[in-house]
Amino acid sequence: MTAEKVRWGIMSTARIGKRSVIPGIQESKWNVVEAVASRSLENAQAFADELGIPKAYGSYEDLLNDPAIDAVYIPLPNHLHKEWTIKAAKAGKHILCEKPIALDEAEATEMVDTCNKAGVILAEAYMYLHQKRYEDIKIRIANGEIGDVRGIHGVFTFNGAKDMSNIRFTKEWGGGSIYDVGCYPINAARFLLGEEPSAVTAHAFFSPDHGNVDMMASGIMEFSNGVALTFDCGMWAEFRNELEILGSKGRIVLKEAFLGDQSYEIIKDGQTKKIIEDNSNPYALQVDNLAESIRNGKPTKFPTDDIISNIKAIKGTLISAEKQERVLLR
Questions:
Q1: What pTM, to 2 d.p., does this model score?
Q2: Residues 42-70: tens digit of each pLDDT
Q3: How many CB atoms lie within 10 A of CB 58?
Q4: DSSP labels for 138-193?
Q5: How far apart are CA 34 and CA 146, in angstroms?
Q6: Contact 307, 187 (CB under 8 A)
Q7: How many whole angstroms separate alpha carbon 201 and alpha carbon 218?
Q8: Residue 241: strand, helix, or coil
Q9: CA–CA separation, 248 vs 266, rounded Å?
């Protein structure tokens, strides 16, 4: 292990870690996976052996007590994010926490305040925003390449309804499609427009067979100048993950907006121009960007205020769907 690399501990043997985040850390330039923890030492050791991780712990507390760990990745169920982020911060560990980072604005604020007091970095795991294309698209919009933005449309759906053991079907744990995948188009619109929404109206299908969580939701989120994000998200539908930014003089289309190929199209005057981007591993980019802040004190790519504002918009969407009414966000 190179001493200057950020040494990571993984809190749980969750599939997202095994499938995506751990390989991203191992592929990255400035990071190394040092340890994994589970509530079972046997499970942690088997996981560590399979992925070539040096240390395994049978509790999250043991991981946090390891002085050789600089940062932790938290992919625990949503309702546990606050508890373990605060414990990690008090243990002096920097934190990358899965999205959505909290269940509501109050939780996120407490997490941010605790991390600030402890002098550690807190980041939310929206890996897609670390792709080069999103910065490029934001610049194209600012430069007027598609004229004035008239609206954004985003979708993210998949069909996981048969897995009745899925933690996403537990309402009290922050389950449901808005928290799980609806957060992506909401996050993307806020980033690309560079502002916070003023209101949201959402409609959802709450399935009694799946813990009464929202298995499908659609909504309209209001921004300034009459611009809106229209979106739908679901966990019981055909797979899609797309984004379109519509302008007065053209549009930008991402056929694989959050997962998959990182190319996109600019469509103007009946002509389509395909922009080919290097399909760099966004999980590796995410931790390398974070490592720059941890190692060199560089400001994080997204300030902690963004974390709080993001969950406020997401929670407002869920409240709107539950109450079947328009919810003001500011």
A1: 0.96
A2: 999 999 999 999 999 999 999 999 999 99
A3: 16
A4: HHHHHTTTT-SEEEEEEEEEEE-TT-TT-GGG-GGGT-SHIIIIIHHHHHHHHHHH
A5: 46
A6: no
A7: 9
A8: strand
A9: 13
